[in-house]
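EI: anyone free to look at a 136-residue chain?
SC: sure, send it
EI:
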Amino acid sequence: MRFLIADRSTKKTDHKRSQNAVNQSRTNAGFSRLLTEWEQRSADQADRMSTDVRVHQTDHIKLMALSKLYHLPVNELAGSLLQQALERLEAEMPYIPGSKVIRVEEGDEIYEDIGPTPRYLAAQKLVREEHNRKNK
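SC: here you go
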């Protein structure tokens, strides 16, 4: 009988040790994950700027609903949505070939882009330079 009792207590002790190890591992992983999330969020926030944007009432209601649904600030959601929209807009800007050949790739002539993309990129560069001059 003593052996069985000792065996049960050993099993209980081993089970408790195992549970403690699992819990400790989860706690460590939880803190590690939390620290990683904070680092990512901090890096993401480092280059964010505040700007005023006017939206239609219906869009504001949608933003407020998303805020309630995901428990995130409206300005953070709006910024994320704007970022996605700009990336999509840039990807969909049309390439309009001009008459000037700017290079040859694998035997194919590549013509200058006379669409909105080069003007947009030039405007971006100008704004970035102005911003950098102001913030020196």
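EI: Residues 53-92 form one domain.
SC: 👍
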